[in-house]
Specification:
This protein is mostly helical and 208 residues long. The protein has four helices and no strands. The longest helix is centred in the last third of the chain and has 73 residues.
């Protein structure tokens, strides 16, 4: 009877250890896959948002350059360039506002759109004064309504990009913390597996 109990106990003990080890492996695979997925998603979103923000800023800068060239030369082709580049800037800013995941980011892009509209209104007023031959008025509008708004746009774009980077950092830290908790769980389960194995060995020793 004792000879029968020993193999049975051995098989049961190995089964318990195997189940615990499978649990450790499952937790590890699941956690690593989720962590990698989260990090990849965050990095992709961050890269896309930053590229879009920089593209919007680039189009805005080119619109400003075209506008200033018109003010200096009076050539109509620069007006068409300004219109096209300004329209691209507004479209990109609106898309960034739509895809923002936090209220802070949405508010920031709302503010950017407001500044863009204010800049456009000032630019159009300066263009009208220039076309009518009122050069002093055009220069006054440039200083008071156009350049002032431009000075507000650059730090706002930088703040929005920095906020996006900070959000990505926070999500990455959260993913790493989850991975650390899973690692602790794996250590606990591994400890239980070792303890179960030791108990089986001890039990077998007493049974023989």
């Amino acid at each position: 009877l004792t000879a029968y109990k020993v193999p049975k106990a051995t098989a049961l003990g190995y089964a318990v250890v195997l189940v615990l080890l499978l649990a450790v492996a499952s937790v590890g695979v699941y956690t690593l896959s989720r962590t990698a997925e989260t990090l990849n998603r965050v990095l992709h979103e961050q890269e896309r948002s930053i590229e879009a923000a920089l593209a919007a800023r680039g189009n805005s800068d080119r619109a400003v350059v075209s506008f200033l060239r018109y003010v200096r030369t009076g050539e109509e082709r620069f007006l068409r360039e300004r219109e096209d580049r300004f329209a691209a800037t507004v479209r990109q800013a609106a898309e960034l506002r739509q895809t923002s995941v936090t209220a802070e980011m949405k508010a920031g892009w709302d503010e950017m759109l407001r500044l863009l509209r204010a800049w456009d209104e000032g630019a159009r007023a300066a263009i009208a004064a220039k076309a009518a031959g009122r050069e002093p008025e055009a220069l006054q509008i440039l200083k008071e309504r156009v350049f002032t708004v431009q000075d507000q746009q650059l730090p706002l774009v930088r703040r929005l990009v920095d906020s996006e980077r900070m959000r990505a950092k926070e999500v990455a830290q959260s993913a790493l913390a989850a991975s650390a908790r899973a690692s602790q769980a794996m250590l606990v389960i591994s400890g239980l597996a070792i303890a179960a194995g030791a108990a089986i060995v001890w039990g077998l020793g007493r049974s023989v």
